Amino acid sequence: MRLACPFCGLRDEGEFAYEGPVMDWPALDARPAKWVDAVYLRDQPRGETRELWRHHLGCGSLLEVVRNNVTHEVASVGHADPAETRALKVRVR
Amino acid sequence: MQPYSALSVIWNGLTGQRDWSRQWRDREPKSAYDVIVVGGGGHGLATAYYLAKNHGIRRVAVLERGLIGQGNAGRNTTIVRSNYMLPGNREFYEHTLKLWEGLSHDLNYNLMFSQRGHMALHFDPAGRDAFARRYNTLRMTGSDGRWLRRDEVRARAPYLNWSPDARFPIEGAFVQERAGTARHDALVWGLARAADARGVQIVQNCEVTGFIREAGEIVGVETSRGEIRAPKVALCVAGSTGPLAARAGLKKLPLETHKLQAFVTEPLKPIVHTVVSSAQEGLFYLSQSDKGGLVFGGEIDGHPSYAQRGGPRIYSEVMEKAVALMPWISRVRILRQWAGVMDMSMDGAPFISTTRVPGLYFNAGWNYGGFKATPASGWCYAHTIAKDEPHELNAAFSLDRFARGAMLDEEASGPTPRLH
Ligand SMILES: Cc1cc2nc3c(=O)[nH]c(=O)nc-3n(C[C@H](O)[C@H](O)[C@H](O)COP(=O)(O)OP(=O)(O)OC[C@H]3O[C@@H](n4cnc5c(N)ncnc54)[C@H](O)[C@@H]3O)c2cc1C
Ligand SMILES: [Zn+2]
């Protein structure tokens, strides 16, 4: 599997670390039960999933990857934080 | 069931091997049972066997999507050990090792269980101290474990890299002498045969696709071969748990599904006489099968996956570790490589549990280590299903332990399944 880092280009999966699913975290003052669920329980998708990966042996960016976990086809890779994408576009230009 | 004995082997040897009967029967599904076990891996078959043997429940079906033993039961590296440290884990794994010690006789089937010892190598004082704590705990709680100095490890394993410029110079090892390996196919078939003899019906090519509910309770399953009813439905599908449990109403689970690879070399003369493991720069474990192949593996691929195949990053990592420990292995050919889909739990410990859905029971979360657990998993799960409450040996493996702050994180790596 290879991922196209928006900053570094197409790289082998060995340069990236999986950081967990893309999910909404509860508010900091939410009930403890909400936090238990967020930290310990996961949806169980089989097929296309939205995940966070870090390009830890590259630029270090946190990436949002849409990937099929049965076929390993990668539909898209972008920065997890849209502000980062905008900032990089300015710099690259 | 035709009992196996030395006499029957000799008799059939003399009479042209014509009198062996079938070991177990592949049944047509009936419309109803007392208990449906979903999944014909080691755990499902063991559960059915102990339901019949220990609890006298005879109308039990094991529904298997494909053929029994074609999941992780037939894909693992067959290491059996009980060197766990946390209360909850250690009693359970010690119980499984004790069951293994009598299982060939109990099943009247040669499981080729070989207590050849498991050596966990250490490479520095910190590694030694961490292991010393673990193995001292084992000794104080009724299991076995011992420290071997460098020269003692060398005497047992001269094939490891003892050269002064080894990448990871070995300092010593901790050994559990009662640990070892067993024959995975024999476990599956031995359990199937013994369960069948006690009236359990094994139904292959029967995929569970949904659940029948009445008044909020699960009262049966929908399958590729029609509806089958039972007041108790017990999930036992290892790496396929997530999507199936979601259909039963357990949408979110403390699980992630990853894949784990293993490798086997061409057969060699006997050289590796124990199981050897190393946690230096990531996990590596090795044993030699009775056919002579070196069987070894490393870590999971690190990202959620339902593909039963591994990626090249792990091939090279595992080969690097193998060559660092045993440089001569670089000249041995790899015959096969494969992967299995792993039910990785949020704390690295399993689940054998009742659920909040009446009629539904839950067994999963075996990570890398469910082969050794097979007998005790079936034993405890059967108890949980029959009595509607856990045995004290699996009380710690409940599904709701996270909400109570009672996680069992043996590796202390937090709620990050890829690190367990
Ligand atoms: C490469 C590798 C190495 C391993 N090494 C070790 C080791 O050295 N020691 C150790 O202790 N453990 C090891 N394990 C882990 C161990 O193999 C598993 O934890 C254990 O086999 C899981 O239990 P099982 O045998 O019941 O699973 P499985 O054999 O996977 O059984 C699950 C069954 O459920 C069936 N199923 C799935 N969905 C459905 C459905 N909808 N309807 C009907 N049936 C269904 C599947 O076809 C399958 O047969 C290893 C695993 C792998 C992959
Ligand atoms: Zn990058």
TrEMBL record, chain A:
<dbReference type="GO" id="GO:0008115">
    <property type="term" value="F:sarcosine oxidase activity"/>
</dbReference>
<dbReference type="GO" id="GO:0046653">
    <property type="term" value="P:tetrahydrofolate metabolic process"/>
</dbReference>
<protein>
    <submittedName>
        <fullName>N-methylglutamate dehydrogenase subunit B</fullName>
    </submittedName>
</protein>
<dbReference type="Pfam" id="PF04267">
    <property type="entry name" value="SoxD"/>
</dbReference>
<dbReference type="InterPro" id="IPR006279">
    <property type="entry name" value="SoxD"/>
</dbReference>
<dbReference type="InterPro" id="IPR038561">
    <property type="entry name" value="SoxD_sf"/>
</dbReference>
From TrEMBL, chain B:
<dbReference type="GO" id="GO:0005737">
    <property type="term" value="C:cytoplasm"/>
</dbReference>
<dbReference type="GO" id="GO:0008115">
    <property type="term" value="F:sarcosine oxidase activity"/>
</dbReference>
<keyword id="KW-0963">Cytoplasm</keyword>
<keyword id="KW-0285">Flavoprotein</keyword>
<keyword id="KW-0547">Nucleotide-binding</keyword>
<dbReference type="InterPro" id="IPR036188">
    <property type="entry name" value="FAD/NAD-bd_sf"/>
</dbReference>
<dbReference type="Pfam" id="PF01266">
    <property type="entry name" value="DAO"/>
</dbReference>
<keyword id="KW-0560">Oxidoreductase</keyword>
<comment type="similarity">
    <text>Belongs to the SoxB family.</text>
</comment>
<feature type="domain" description="Rhodanese">
    <location>
        <begin position="35"/>
        <end position="79"/>
    </location>
</feature>
<dbReference type="GO" id="GO:0000166">
    <property type="term" value="F:nucleotide binding"/>
</dbReference>
<protein>
    <recommendedName>
        <fullName>Sarcosine oxidase subunit beta</fullName>
        <ecNumber>1.5.3.24</ecNumber>
    </recommendedName>
</protein>
<dbReference type="InterPro" id="IPR001763">
    <property type="entry name" value="Rhodanese-like_dom"/>
</dbReference>
<keyword id="KW-0288">FMN</keyword>
<dbReference type="GO" id="GO:0046653">
    <property type="term" value="P:tetrahydrofolate metabolic process"/>
</dbReference>
<keyword id="KW-0274">FAD</keyword>
<dbReference type="InterPro" id="IPR006278">
    <property type="entry name" value="SoxB"/>
</dbReference>
<dbReference type="InterPro" id="IPR006076">
    <property type="entry name" value="FAD-dep_OxRdtase"/>
</dbReference>
